[in-house]
Every structure is written in C-alpha cells, then in structure tokens.
C-alpha cells in the first residue's frame, strides 16, 4: 500500500502514543507489566537473528532504534550479546522513554529466575547502559552516544545498524498536509542520512509489503540498496497471496 492510500488514524498522532505510554508506564509501576511488544515475540526473534547473522557484536556496532517504545527490541539485542553502551533508542513520546528507562533499571537490578543459584544474578545487568532519549525523528537531529565520532564527510551517517519495528507504519497514519503529502514521505531520506556507509537498516512493517519498502528505501535520494529479507508465513485471500508482516534489510554501499 502506498502512503497516499493509507487513511490517517489516531495511531499517527503523538497524542495517541503519549496516552498509550502514559498508561503503560503506570501499569509498569503498579504491576510490573512491561507493555506491548508490537508484532509479537516472533518479530523480535527474526530481527535479532538477522542481526546476529549480519552485524557481528564484535567489534561492537552502534545501533539506533527509531520509535523504540518500551525498548523490547534493544533489550533482546542486549540479551543476545550486543554491548548496551553502543545502543540508542529514541522515541518522540517522553513516557515511552521513561518506560524504557524504568524497565532497563529494573532488568539491571532484578535477579533472574535461577531458583537453584545461591546468589541469583540480575536478569540483564547492563540493560541500564542503553541510552533512551526523546527525539522526533522527522524533525530533530539524533544525538550521538558518548565516544561516537562524526564522520568527516557526513556528520549524520554514523550508525552501523538502524532499526524500525512498527514506526514507519505509525508515521504513515499521520494526517497529510494541504497538498496530500504524508509525513512518512520524508522518512526514508532521514533513515538514509543516519546509516553509515557499509551499515544497515532493518525494518519490520505491517503496512508495507517488501516491494513497497524496496521502492521507498532504494531510491537514489535515500541511498540504500536491498540486502536481504526474513520470510513470514504467507496467506491467500481472493486469489492474492501476501504476508501479514514484512521484515526487510537494506545496506548503504
Ligand atoms: C507501533 S509503535 C512500535 C514501538 C516499538 N518499536 C515496538 O516494536 O514495540 C510505534 C512507535 O513509534 C513512535 N513514533 C511515532 N512517530 C515518531 C517520530 N516522529 N519520532 C520518534 N518516534 C515516533 C511511537 O511513539 C511508538 O513508540
């Protein structure tokens, strides 16, 4: 589906996400519920497996997740062995940032379920080293992590891996401007700016097919090329075959 075919909905508004994360933050403080994992655990597993196969944890890559929500994908990467101090999760909703930080803090102190161990170790001792910060990706510059250096030719292109799980889907549901342009139209170029040459962009989407994602991210203006895909089960309906989700990787030559 092209962005112009999508009808604006509340999922494309910051007010909606502020409401969602305000509730999830209260729930986390009240009952320890970490909130929703968008597209389920399968999507997390597919994105982590892809990363393990294509972006080695040593030397430690700089990883940026755009629209990180409660941070579930970055916690899974941390658990898979990626150094947390090189990871940044950004979200335009401050309560999402607070929620991710609160979960990180609890994971780095709460003991793992090791019933036989005399002194159980924390579930994810270094989770609180992941940086979570507020940033509207369509408007703000993404802050660098301590120790990151600017690329001399292009100060913005510094991330080895940029992740999106459901974020462009949400942005594509925002109101269009007077000329019918969606805010999502500018999203691929902003992704292209932050991926380092030789780096990757990995996206899981429910609103766009693999072919639509390729069309958006492989234009000359964006500067990415198709790298690989992770298959999802297919379904058939009305003579058409499709996938509920698409997980596609691009690289910057
Ligand atoms: C469908 S949720 C996915 C959250 C998370 N990636 C996950 O998989 O659980 C979309 C996320 O994108 C964030 N978002 C939407 N527009 C954004 C923007 N312009 N800049 C930064 N974050 C944005 C929302 O606040 C929300 O957390």
What does this molecule look like?
There is one protein chain. By secondary structure, the chain is of the alpha/beta class. It has one domain (3-112, 120-251): Rossmann fold. It has helices at 14-31, 40-54, 72-79, 94-107, 167-171, 187-194, 210-217, and strands spanning 63-66, 87-91, 131-134, 159-165, 195-205, 225-230, 234-237, 240-243, 246-251. The longest helix has 18 residues, at 14-31. It is globular and about 60 Å long. It binds S-adenosylmethionine.
Instruction: Please work out how many helical segments DSSP would assign.
Output: 7
- CATH level-four homologous superfamily name: Vaccinia Virus protein VP39
Overall body shape: globular
Task: List the bound ligands.
Answer: S-adenosylmethionine
User: What is the name of the CATH class?
Assistant: Alpha Beta
Mean pLDDT: 91
Total domain units: 1
Q: What is the percentage of strand-forming residues?
A: 15-25%
Question: What kind of sheet is the major sheet?
Answer: 7 strands, mixed
CATH topology: Rossmann fold
Characterize the quaternary organization of these chains. single chain
Spans with pLDDT under 50 lasting ≥5 residues?
none
Q: In angstroms, what is the radius of gyration?
A: 18 Å
Q: Order of helices and strands, N to C?
A: HHEHEHEEHHEHEEEE
Can you list the strand order of the major beta sheet? 3-2-1-4-5-9-6
According to DSSP, the number of beta strands is 9
- Helical fraction equals 25-40%
Structural class: alpha/beta
Distance between the termini: 27 Å
Task: Supply the CATH architecture.
Answer: 3-Layer(aba) Sandwich
């Amino acid at each position: 589906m092209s962005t112009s075919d999508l009808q604006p909905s509340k999922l494309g508004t910051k007010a909606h996400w502020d409401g969602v994360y305000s509730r999830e933050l209260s729930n986390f403080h009240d009952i320890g519920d970490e909130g929703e994992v968008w597209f389920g655990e399968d999507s997390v597993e597919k994105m982590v497996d892809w990363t393990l196969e294509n972006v080695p944890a040593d030397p430690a890559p700089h990883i940026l997740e755009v629209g990180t929500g409660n941070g579930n994908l970055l916690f899974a990467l941390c658990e898979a062995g990626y150094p947390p101090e090189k990871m940044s999760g950004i979200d335009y909703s401050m309560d999402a940032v607070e929620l991710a930080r609160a979960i990180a803090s609890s994971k780095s102190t709460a003991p793992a379920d090791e019933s036989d161990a005399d002194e159980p170790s924390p579930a994810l001792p270094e989770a609180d080293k992941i940086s979570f910060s507020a940033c509207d990706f369509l408007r703000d510059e993404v802050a660098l992590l301590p120790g990151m250096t600017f690329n001399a030719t292009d100060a913005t292109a510094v991330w080895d891996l940029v992740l999106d799980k459901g974020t462009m889907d949400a942005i594509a549901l925002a109101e269009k401007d007077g000329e019918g342009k969606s805010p999502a139209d500018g999203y691929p170029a902003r992704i292209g700016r932050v991926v380092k040459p030789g780096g990757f962009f990995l996206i899981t989407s429910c609103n766009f097919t693999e072919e639509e994602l390729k069309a958006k991210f492989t234009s000359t203006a964006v500067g990415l090329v198709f790298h690989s895909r992770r298959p999802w089960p297919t379904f058939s309906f009305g003579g058409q075959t499709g996938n509920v989700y698409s997980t596609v990787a691009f690289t910057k030559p």
